[in-house]
Request: fold
Amino acid sequence: MSKKNQKKQAIALGYDREKDQAPRMIGKGQGFVAEEIIQKAKEHSIPIQEDPSLVELLGQLEINQTIPSDLYEVVAELFAFIYRIDQNK
Reply:
């Protein structure tokens, strides 16, 4: 499928260090739902990282599912990215 025909996809992750053992998926969607997730993130100044490979991997999870340990490294890189953005603000 060409990029032109691919639907936009979005994944939302959450982590509450007092409640969660690991980050978890708090939302996912394609097309219109993906656009809404992205819009809400922008409205709340939540950093957005575009990584189609990561979206594909995480898209296999169910909402509220904790990130499996084999994805910790890649998700840790994502949270490091967010931390750097927060530090620069």
Q: What stands out?
A: The first strand starts at residue 9 and ends at 14. The beta strands are 9-14, 24-30. Helices lie at 32-43, 52-58, 72-88. The chain has three helices and two strands.
